[in-house]
């Protein structure tokens, strides 16, 4: 199996997204993990939301969040027909998690909230790409990287537990119910308490490296 990263500039607009299927088919890779980052604009919005939330400017944070939601639902409408509602329902589940957080008051440090909010960018982009590929006949299974990559709780710069992560990746890729192509998020993991973490900001470690390391050991 092979892992490939999809750069964030490839998912910033509709034209770039629609180029992806032809390139995947041209590579003729029979078993693939496609690792998706967040669009740059989305990351910028999420960073603003994190800062506004932590400053207890709830209305400002929720206003930006609503814009982000609307933009992603529009993207679904532009990309899909058959998978449109399924995709939007999946996105809605992600949005709900963050909305619950935004209606609370911050009681932990900024880095914790930053990771919980910024990980949404990769969730949204990977989910949309997965449903879009299924829409046009490229069968794949979306898998949440947080179910595979286990980290410590050093939020914004988490360290990966390679032993547990390797075991979880092998378990998921060996599941016969999954398609031969898996789609997942970049730079996103979870702690033992299932709190979202982001890794690789300081040392440029990408989830693609982790997957390929596991596969090469097999």
Task: Using brief descriptors, characterize the structure shown.
alpha/beta, Carbamate kinase, two-stranded antiparallel sheet, 6 strands, 55% helix, globular
Care to describe what's here?
The chain is α/β, with parallel strands linked by helices and 218 residues long. The protein has one domain: Acetylglutamate kinase-like (Carbamate kinase, 3-Layer(aba) Sandwich). Helices cover 55% and strands 11% of the residues. The protein contains seven helices and six strands, in the order βαβααααβαβββα. It has helices spanning 14-27, 40-54, 58-79, 84-102, 110-135, 162-173, 207-217; strands at 2-6, 32-36, 141-142, 181-185, 188-190, 196-198. The strands form two sheets. A four-stranded parallel sheet has the order 1-2-4-3. β5 (188-190) and β6 form a beta hairpin. α6 packs across α7.
SSE topology sketch:
Elements: E1 2-6, H1 14-27, E2 32-36, H2 40-54, H3 58-79, H4 84-102, H5 110-135, E3 141-142, H6 162-173, E4 181-185, E5 188-190, E6 196-198, H7 207-217
Helix pairs in contact: 2-3, 2-5, 3-4, 4-5, 6-7
What's a quick, concise take on this entry?
The chain has 218 residues and is of the alpha/beta class.
- How large, in whole angstroms, is the Cα Rg? 17 Å
Number of domains: 1
Low-confidence stretches: none
CATH class: Alpha Beta
Strand order of the largest sheet: 1-2-4-3
Mean pLDDT: 91
User: At CATH's second level, what is the architecture?
Assistant: 3-Layer(aba) Sandwich
Query: Strand-residue fraction?
Result: 5-15%
Compute the number of helices. Answer: 7
Distance between the termini: 10 Å
The CATH superfamily appears as Acetylglutamate kinase-like
The secondary structure category is alpha/beta
The fold-level CATH name is Carbamate kinase
Strand count, sense and closure of the main sheet?
4 strands, parallel
Helix amount: 40-55%
The 3D shape can be described as: globular
What's the total count of β strands? 6
């Amino acid at each position: 199996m092979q892992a490939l990263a999809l750069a964030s500039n490839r998912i910033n607009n509709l034209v770039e997204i629609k180029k992806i299927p032809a390139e995947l088919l041209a590579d003729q890779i029979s078993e693939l993990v496609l690792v998706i980052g967040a669009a740059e604009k989305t990351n910028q919005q999420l960073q603003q939301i994190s800062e506004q939330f932590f400053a207890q400017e709830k209305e400002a944070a929720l206003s930006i969040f609503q814009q982000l939601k609307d933009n992603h639902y529009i993207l679904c409408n532009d990309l899909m027909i058959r998978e449109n509602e399924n995709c939007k329902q999946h996105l809605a589940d992600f949005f709900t998690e963050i909305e619950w957080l935004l209606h609370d008051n911050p009681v932990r440090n900024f880095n914790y909230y930053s990771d919980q909010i910024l990980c949404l960018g990769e969730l949204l982009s990977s989910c949309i790409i997965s449903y879009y590929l299924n829409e046009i006949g490229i069968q794949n299974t979306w898998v949440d990287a947080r179910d595979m990559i286990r980290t410590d709780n050093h939020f914004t710069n988490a360290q990966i537990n390679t032993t547990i992560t390797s075991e979880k990746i092998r378990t998921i890729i060996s599941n016969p119910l999954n398609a031969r192509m898996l789609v997942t998020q970049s730079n996103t993991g979870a702690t033992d308490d299932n709190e979202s973490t982001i890794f690789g900001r300081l040392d440029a470690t990408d989830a693609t490296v982790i997957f390929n390391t596991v596969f090469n050991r097999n």
